Amino acid sequence: MTSPQKQFNYDPALEELAELFGDRLKTANAVCEQYGKDESFHPSAPPHAVIQPENAAEVQSIVKICNRNKTPIIPHGAGTSLEGNVAALRGGICIDSARMDSIISVNHGDFDAVVQPGVTRRQLNQHLKNSGLFFPIDPGADATLGGMAATRASGTNAVRYGSMRENVVNIEAVMADGSIIQTAKRSRKSAAGYDLTRLMVGSEGTLGFFTALTVKLYPLPEAISAAVCTFENIEGAVNTVIEMIQYGIPIARVELLDELTLQAINRYSQTEYAEAPTLFFEFHGSQSGVEEQARLTQEIADQNQGSQFKWTSNAEQRNKMWRARHDVAWACKLLRPDGQIWSTDVCVPISRLAECINQTRKDIEDAKIIAPIVGHVGDGNFHLLLLVDHENKDEIAAAETLHHKMVMRALEMDGTCTGEHGIGYGKIEFLKLEHGEAIQPMRLIKQALDPNNIFNPGKIFEWHR
Amino acid sequence: MTSPQKQFNYDPALEELAELFGDRLKTANAVCEQYGKDESFHPSAPPHAVIQPENAAEVQSIVKICNRNKTPIIPHGAGTSLEGNVAALRGGICIDSARMDSIISVNHGDFDAVVQPGVTRRQLNQHLKNSGLFFPIDPGADATLGGMAATRASGTNAVRYGSMRENVVNIEAVMADGSIIQTAKRSRKSAAGYDLTRLMVGSEGTLGFFTALTVKLYPLPEAISAAVCTFENIEGAVNTVIEMIQYGIPIARVELLDELTLQAINRYSQTEYAEAPTLFFEFHGSQSGVEEQARLTQEIADQNQGSQFKWTSNAEQRNKMWRARHDVAWACKLLRPDGQIWSTDVCVPISRLAECINQTRKDIEDAKIIAPIVGHVGDGNFHLLLLVDHENKDEIAAAETLHHKMVMRALEMDGTCTGEHGIGYGKIEFLKLEHGEAIQPMRLIKQALDPNNIFNPGKIFEWHR
Known about the structure:
Chain A has four domains: 4-98, Uridine Diphospho-n-acetylenolpyruvylglucosamine Reductase, domain 2 (2-Layer Sandwich), CATH 3.30.43.10; 103-219, Uridine Diphospho-n-acetylenolpyruvylglucosamine Reductase, domain 3; 223-329, 2-Layer Sandwich (Alpha-Beta Plaits), CATH 3.30.70; 334-421, Alpha-Beta Plaits, CATH 3.30.70.2740. Chain A is 38% helix and 20% strand.
């Protein structure tokens, strides 16, 4: 990388911003270092300064100054991204949404909420407590809704409730020219013009800064139950899920965990799950509905060599199970205390999922790397947690080869190089292989909407063909 | 409108195309007239020629010739659009998808199908017969899937299954530069790059020509039942639906019909429905599930002054009810045999729906126009069928005023000027009012992806600011 100072003219932008924001413009190295790093293994690339605006008008003034000076802007939420999405590759100004954390309105009759971008998913659900409504999207981290929209995040509920793609109704964004747009109205449907909402969702901060979002909410189900079932192999588990969908069972969550993950969980969470390919299920519906769903699921699982099917309507038992699932990263970390986790994901058509996982497991074995697998199997999406010593070059090279093979396999199976983590700067080469000719329209859109390339430069794809 | 010949150079394009396609390039006035008109009241604007390519390579050669000569291309499906979407406002070449009507593959395990753009929704469902799968999106007409994707169509099932926005997985499109892109892979989720799929869905043929689509399929429910219920007023009906959603009833269809619509139906379909605000319901699920859904719905309806709740699991009775609903346009036409139907729609947050409909009904009364209302109430979307004599200027003026008030009301309620018909050239002024500053990014995208403005020029928004 060439020195950012040679490419961009930061001093005037910093001076103008300091004049406007005084002490609120943070330039201390210690602060900037922290903002240049996400939860991935990618090295930190600190911005020149960090600022926490309090409203859209402040964001607008920052964007105008930066656009005039061609200074990069890196939008920042909770910093929990996994592909270096928040790294300030060319320096610039990090806009942190931490102070824009108000829940503006909850519209009970319309099943939606309007929030500022810094609101986290747990904060929103805490606020909704006793309202009878909830927000379902649950990536591993307690991410901000702005960051989740930017990354097109999803989680364990996506099989039933969709990802951020399906659950963002409107985005208020400050564009590169300083205009503040609303991508849509608050109606559930619209056939009015280009779908700017979906264009902004997943754009990873490269098209504008989100200053408010309207998201869908759902009624809390009358009854929730959970189940766990062990399988002889991955095929049995995946086929169970395919048949459940064929049968029309409105499964709310279905998570696949492999032997190694169960070992890690048992050790970390003091549980006693069988250490074999396992599905964790959750059912939402009426009391009789969830019972029927569980009964049908057991029948289907039985036909796929499932065993030890355990069903519970007890909330405590259910929460314990999902807590164990949510702690998988911590649990897996203990499989190799001296290593770091490199978390990556792919997503394939579900009919190819078992094959994709099995071939990847073969590669893991060959590479002699510890790498548990957990999957949102209803979506065909799975995560590989590579436990590697980042100082060990041979090991990193072996992990990279393994990773490369997994992604290429997913692409060959008509799948995608990332189901929910985004591209950041970690998967740019894979995106090229995935999209081919379709990168060019993306690039043309970026160049048209952000001609000075101020928004999160160096992410998703390269500026030049 | 200025003469198209002055703006564009058609002769060389026509010559090149004639050389390549011979007799297949149709230029007869009678043919062109027919292709310049959709099912709306907008006057015909015929293209200079019509061609029916058979594959993507032929489309590509047409696009290259047209782009080189700056000749407009108007994509054409079944011609059932309602806002002049297919009118060749500046002449040019109409590309009709009629011969690209093959179902390429049905992927049973992945619940999707790959089709050419000229496949109609009924053709696809006919093909899926006995497969246990179906495609749910059902606009009034038997539209092509290419056209439905272009218009972001929906229909009576959208409350449960979503619109084309949620149900298109991938689009193969020929772009203005002649490149053939795939907007996505076939996996259910992806966080890889800009969402070009959703950008193309609803772009009304202004960004490219669709040569193939992958769409989602759903398992046929084990049981389907239907119900009908009469209400004292619109509020009772709408509140019933809101409470059903709050209760988590996974309603598959819920259609609102006003008194006048029921009068028309009774006369046309020889039925004996009460001539009052009415909901038609459909429930999908297991046998016990649909019974439970109907029972809960009746309880909720009772609390909202619903009466004459009739439930049926009989397929013949159910089909008769939906046949009556689908024949609404024909039935309403008979309310005024000397008039024509001007069909328009808006969509608002569901909490405002009853108010929006009631105020519109008041305007209808004042305007002395016959205008029944039917609504996809679960989405907050309703249609107004204005029965007017298009030769009568006073009447048209009154209808336009009424229409204008309805759209402005929807926008004030944070709704949209069209829930499912699109903008075409009939609602360009309303789109400006709806999107304001957000038109500019749409325009920049159009100019970047189609710099010669060849794809369906004059639609959705104006080229110049």
